[in-house]
Design brief:
The structure holds 2 protein chains of 2 kinds.
Chain A lengths: L1 H42 L2 E2 L7 E2 L3 H8 L2 H32 L6 H9 L6 H12 L5 H12 L11 H13 L3 H11 L4 H9 L4 H29 L3 H6 L11 H10 L4 H29 L7
Antiparallel strand pairs in A: 1-2
Chain B lengths: L1 H18 L9 E7 L8 H14 L3 E7 L2 H13 L6 E5 L3 H6 L6 H7 L13 H6 L1 E2 L2 E2 L2 E2 L1 E2 L2 E6 H6 L11 H9 L3 E3 L2 E4 L11 H7 L16 H12 L6 H14 L11 E5 L1 H9 L5 E4 L11 E2 L3 E5 L7 H14 L2 H11 L2 E2 L2 H8 L3 H10 L2 E2 L16 H9 L4 H22 L1
Parallel strand pairs in B: 1-2, 1-3, 13-16
Antiparallel strand pairs in B: 3-14, 4-5, 6-14, 7-15, 8-11, 8-12, 9-10
Helix pairs in contact in B: 2-14, 14-15, 17-18
The chains are: A mainly alpha, B alpha+beta.
């Protein structure tokens, strides 16, 4: 008799046990994740110096940022520049590397490891290393390029120390870790059925044709994934500029996240910094949503039935 | 094999458990004190023995000292103050005591001094009024000066002798500084290998040079000035000091200095430099063998003898928990740290100039360089705290300064742009406060 109601009960019980097992994680999510997020949303409407209690001031922080803050727009512009160039470049380099490494030659796993290795290095150590490589007067990069400078009779590039080249220098440096996305591309590439290539070969397709008509279209899901991840990460660019250039020269590498950091640490304006964080979130959300909309036009997800 | 593994595991576990024990404080009141001598630093054992001596001198309180490196300290203490988990006693910067006093994070030291009837109370006459002023908010002390920093001109005596100069030739005015500095400039082909002096090297700052002319970044109402011809002239004097060399020559020289990783004065690449008192310790630690001396920073015609002095304050944090016993215990240790003998020991341990006047006079006696460094503390002025731009000399000013120095902006443009930035910051600050 008890058995008839026990199915429902059992379901409830199982749910409870499930939640119980998940509770350490749920608790962590609420306390360490959701609470700070909601708190920062409230703080963005206040004036808060991190010592005395936050004072509610409505939309003033947002109004000031949009209408009376030259550095807000400057840093946002720098960040857009970074995102627009760094992400496509990162994808191109990652895909090219994956194409190169998708071969059956000896010692391939060693090459793959080597290209992935920069992702294991701490970004701080990496920035310090590149600081020396790009050093205009003594750095190894200018040393190698010296014959070219001589050939064209030009001044050696000052890389991260000149306004014209600083942003690009940091982007080039970032490409060093393209091996991270390369691994994902490679995994998908090796998932492509060999029969497709076989039939293409029968039709007389060469390597370039096979790449353009088979490999790349079938790789669009992973390219899209890396594009979204790159977008989110690109808008948060901070560490390399903080260590290598301190935002200079002439604030040319003063990125949005850097300004947000300064607002909080140097100006002790936590309210304003929180408002900046929420503006950034909205920007990233808009871009991601647009990208997701475009998803169905560019991403190949198999033949439709 | 299994047995060996097991034994190793047991030993390791034993060590871990043993290290969890911590000190036995009995039923003493525990006072937390944060300082800048972390484990592994040269000053660690000295600081530890100062704390241990206090703990052994009485049986009511137990001071638990925690050291952080200078670079980590500021984040830790700021977060602790904000989250109301600050230690009972800690160090901070003296020029912004006001900000913490306003928000109620600090105990009123004047009240504690007044309420204390013991004979080891703090003797305020042993501290410089200029430093006490920075620790004062609405007529009451909210911190005490702990250490003092001063900036002086270091000169390489061996290089002076080489050029047939003596200590009598050490420059005292801007004009002399330039004339004498030029004697030391050395070129190897097209490459600079030695400079006499550069007004941007070491710890020389634009505001430091301005002060000597009686100028400043802000007026008495904390409004940015910077827009007068005198401001432009001083900046141009800095820019043009070594203008007979090309920008590339100067940059390469500066970069080579950085490459060596030591202070350019300590590596004998400049004959003179404006630096803080800490350079004395750096030269000593580096085991440098050259002869050198220190002198007041040269001043312009009709200028004032002044240098940018900053310093640490020592503060008692009020976490809003209304703990009188805890507070009184902390004050006992506070008095101990500010007593003459301990200040002397702290000077020795950290290599800092401490704030206690008599203690320092006794400490430096007989050491000519230290005596001169201490003498300059009397001419040291700290930078003013600007609520709308707490980092006015750092983040806010440096980008414009760099533009002026690298020639991408003229002195006039850089100053105008910097001023506009301060004004915008002020407007936005007023708008939200």
């Amino acid at each position: 008799m008890t058995k008839t109601i026990s199915i429902k009960k059992l379901k409830k019980q199982e749910n409870l046990i499930g939640y119980l097992f998940a509770s350490p994680w749920l608790l962590g999510l609420i306390v360490l994740g959701a609470f700070p997020i909601l708190a920062s949303f409230y703080i963005s409407f206040t004036n808060y110096d991190m010592i005395s209690a936050p004072k509610f001031i409505g939309l003033a922080n947002y109004r000031i940022l949009f209408t009376n803050d030259a550095l807000f727009w400057k840093s946002l512009g720098n960040t857009f520049y970074h995102v627009i160039i760094a992400i496509p470049l990162g994808i191109i380099v990652g895909v090219c590397l994956a194409l190169l490494l998708n071969n059956k030659i000896k010692g391939m796993s060693i090459y793959r490891t080597l290209f992935y290795l920069p992702n294991v290095v701490s970004i701080v150590a990496m920035a310090l290393l590149w600081l020396w490589l790009f050093q205009p007067s003594f750095g190894i990069i200018n040393e190698i390029l010296a014959p070219i400078y001589k050939l064209f009779n030009m001044e050696p590039l000052r890389w991260h120390q000149a306004v014209e080249t600083s942003k690009i220098t940091l982007i080039i440096m970032g490409l060093w870790s393209a091996g991270g996305s390369m691994v994902i591309y490679l995994a998908q590439m090796q998932d492509i059925p060999y029969s497709l290539y076989e039939s293409a070969e029968m039709d007389g397709a060469n390597w370039i044709k096979k790449t353009i008509y088979i490999t790349l279209p079938l790789m669009t899901p992973s390219i899209f994934f890396n594009f979204i991840m790159g977008l989110i990460g690109g808008f948060q660019v901070f560490t390399i500029a903080y260590i290598m250039t301190s935002g200079g020269p002439s604030r040319s590498t003063y990125y949005y996240a850097y300004y947000m950091f300064d607002k909080m640490i140097a100006d002790q304006a936590m309210g304003m910094a929180s408002a900046m964080a929420w503006i950034l979130l909205v920007i990233v959300l808009i871009f991601t949503m647009v990208a997701l909309r475009l998803n169905k036009y560019v991403v190949y997800l198999g033949e439709e039935a | 094999m299994k047995k060996a593994c097991l034994i190793v595991m047991i030993i390791i576990t034993g060590f871990i458990l043993a290290s969890c024990g911590g000190e036995d404080t009995g039923d003493k009141i525990v006072i937390d004190f944060w300082h800048m001598s972390p484990v592994g630093s040269t000053s660690f054992s000295g600081m530890k023995s100062i704390i241990t001596d206090f703990n052994e001198s009485q049986d009511e309180y137990f001071v638990r000292g925690t050291g952080f490196s200078f670079w980590d300290y500021w984040d830790k203490i700021n977060v602790a103050i904000a989250s109301r988990t600050a230690p009972d006693i800690g160090l901070s910067t003296i020029d912004d005591v006001e900000a913490r006093a306003v928000s109620g994070a600090l105990y009123n030291i004047s009240e504690l001094i007044e309420a204390d009837t013991s004979d080891n109370n703090i003797d305020l006459s042993e501290f410089r009024q200029s430093q006490l002023d920075f620790a004062t908010y609405q007529g009451d002390l909210y911190a005490m000066p702990f250490s003092a920093t001063t900036r002086v001109l270091y000169y390489n005596l061996d290089m002076f002798t080489e050029e047939g100069l003596t200590e009598a030739d050490v420059p005292t005015t801007w004009e002399e500084l330039k004339t004498i500095a030029k004697k030391f400039d050395t070129l190897d082909g097209n490459e600079l290998t030695r400079l006499g002096f550069d007004p941007t090297y070491g710890n020389a700052t634009y505001h430091g040079w301005l002060w000597q002319k009686g100028l400043d970044f802000f007026d008495d109402n904390k409004l940015p000035t910077l827009n007068t011809q005198a401001h432009i002239d001083v900046l141009n004097w800095i820019i043009n000091f070594n203008s007979e060399y090309t920008r590339n020559q100067l940059t390469a020289f500066g970069e080579a200095n950085n490459l060596l990783g030591t202070n350019p004065f300590a590596s004998q690449r400049v004959a003179m430099i404006v630096e803080v008192d800490g350079l004395y310790q750096i030269i000593k630690d580096a085991g440098a063998t050259f002869n050198y001396g220190v002198a007041p920073i040269p001043i312009p015609e009709g200028g004032t003898r002044v240098n940018w002095g900053s310093g640490f304050s020592i503060e008692m944090y009020d976490n809003g928990k209304d703990e009188t016993v805890q507070r009184d215990g902390a004050y006992e240790f506070y008095k101990y740290l500010l007593s003459k003998d301990i200040q002397k020991r702290l000077a020795e341990v950290n290599g800092w100039i401490m704030s206690h006047i008599t203690a320092m006079e006794e400490y430096v006696a007989g050491n000519e360089i230290l005596e001169k460094l201490l003498a300059e503390v009397d001419y040291a002025v700290d930078k003013v705290y600007i609520p709308y731009a707490p980092s006015w000399h750092g983040n806010d000013w440096q980008p414009y300064y760099q533009e002026a120095l690298s020639g991408t902006m003229t002195a006039e443009q850089a100053l105008a742009a910097a001023r506009a930035n301060y004004l915008q910051k002020k407007q936005n600050y007023d708008d939200t406060n």
